[in-house]
Amino acid sequence: MVRLVLVGPPGAGKGTQAAVLSERLDVPHISTGDLFRANIGNETPLGQKAQSYMDAGELVPDEVTNEMVRDRLADSDAQKGFLLDGYPRNTAQAEVLSEILGANGVELTAVVQFDVPEEELVRRMLDRGRSDDTEDVIRRRLAVYREETEPLLEYYADRIVKIDAMGTVEQISDRAQEALRGRS
Ligand code: AMP
Asked: If we measure between CA atoms, which residue out of 27, 8, 182, 143 comes closest to residue 86?
């Protein structure tokens, strides 16, 4: 049983690695970005709340995000473990996650940090061509990462597993799986 959080700057390849690792480790891939995008696509009230923040590269407010994650983690498939991609994004969210897990008497197995040089990040994001991947929004998302999300590396210092995220998808996921061996 593994309960993982993936942390890394936008463009680090977290989403791709999360998809591969969730398959290999047989746990659901829970991406808050994907959940928001699905809600926007379905024109739900949650999607309406999230849209303007996402378009600007800002974080969606914590109350909205935390409740969405709380609901998702209560689903039956998440009881066998999970891989969180894009959450938590700040220490306030990390506190809420600890509280949710603590109430269930469980804790995180590890926090996987994807390490990529900055110039490579911008190149990868411009390649991806998502609607929030324009240069201004990319810069804002990187700044938000540095200001809000990077402090999580300190917060989770005792369970960080740092992965060199340069290379092919397979090389990187092999590295991650190797580094996680013995922890589940
Ligand atoms: P991502 O797909 O993880 O890059 O997320 C895309 C966008 O969704 C982010 O730029 C935020 O606007 C929003 N988002 C995703 N996850 C979170 C989160 N944990 N907290 C707040 N906003 C989030």
From this structure: 8
**Opening angle at CA 153, ends 131 and 21, nearest 5:** 60
Q: What is the pLDDT of residues 40-64, one digit of tens each?
A: 999 999 999 999 999 999 999 999 9
| Burial call 80-112: b when 16+ CB within 10 Å, e when fewer | ebbbbbbbbbbeebbebbeeeeeeeeeebbbbb
> Domain spanning 3-178 has what CATH number?
3.40.50.300
Question: Is the pLDDT higher at 138 or at 6?
Answer: 6
* Ligand 1 atom at minimal distance to the Cα of residue 14: 3
CA of 33 to the centre of ligand 1 (A): 5
What is the CA(84)–ligand 1 centre distance, in A?
A: 12
